[in-house]
Fold this protein.
Amino acid sequence: MFTPKDLVLYDQFVLDTRPEKPELELHESSRRRQIVWAILDSALALLETRQGKESLAMVAERIITTRDKINKGRTKSRQEPHIYTDKLANLPRWIDRFLASMRDHFPLVLISTLTEGEAETKKKDWGSDMRMYVAADAGTLYLNHDIIANMGHAMDQRQAREERERQNSRTRSGAKGKKANDQPQEPDEYQLFKFQMVISVAHELVHFLTGFLTGTAKPNTPLAVTAEPYSTKDGEAGRFWEAQFLGGFVEYWAPELSEGDSPDTLRHPGRPYLFDEGSVSTALGYEVSSSYILDFLRGSRSLAPGHLWETEPFD
C-alpha cells in the first residue's frame, strides 16, 4: 500500500544547476511531503479507474503499432524498437502491472526550482524484460517548487478560514453553525492547485509508460503519438493521453496582475479551462465545472472525463 512514508522525496533549492544528488530529503511528517503524496495518490487513482486504464492501453497500443510501422524497411541501427512481445489483446494486464509497480515502487520525486511547467519526467534506461519492471528504476519525477509552496500557503489559508468559521459559529448567539457534513460548492485555491497537479502528474506518468514499453530513455515517442501542436520532431504521449481521456487540454488562466495586487493574488492558481484544440490562442476554451473538480478530488469513479465543462466557451 502506497503511503507518505514510502515516498522518496527531496526538495531542491537550486537556481542555476541540477545537481547529481538532491539537496534535502523531506521528513515523512513534513507539510510538503503530505501535499506531494496526496497529488501522486490521486493521479494514480485516476489512472486506476476503468477509463484511466483504457486510455493508457490506447496510448500503449498506438506507441507499439506506430513503432512497428516505422521500423518496417529500416536497418536495425535506425529502428525505434519496443520491448512489448505479447498480443495487443493482453495490453490491459500489462497496464495493471505498470500501475502496480508505480504503487509499490514510485520513482524518486524532486521538488525543483528548475522545473518548467507543473511537472517534468526524466526517464532512464531500466532493462529489456517488462516482467522485471520496477518503476523506481525507470526515472525521476520533477515537480514545480513554486506550485507546491503555493499549495502549502493555500492549505494554511484554508485552515485559518475553517478556524474562523468554527469560532464564529460558537460565538454568534442563536446562529446556526455550518454542519460538519456540508459540502462546499466551489473549490478553494488548494483544490484548484491540486486539480492542476493531479492532471499534470497523470500526464507525466504516461511518459513513464512509454519507458515501460521501450526499456530505455530514448528513442522518443513517435511523432504520430501526439496532439497538435504539441510536437515538432518527436511525439507527445502525455498530450495524446489528455486528448483521449479528457477530450481536450486543461490550461489555467488568471486575470492580468498589476503592481498593487496583494501577495495572495500573486499566489492564486487561476481557473482551469478545457480547450478542444492544442493552440490556446485560437481554440475555444470551456471553464471546467466546479462540481466536476470537487467530485474529481473526492475520488468519484463515476465521472465522465470527456464532459468537464458546463459554461459558455472562453476565447
Summary: The two ends are 43 Å apart (CA to CA). The longest strand covers residues 139-144.
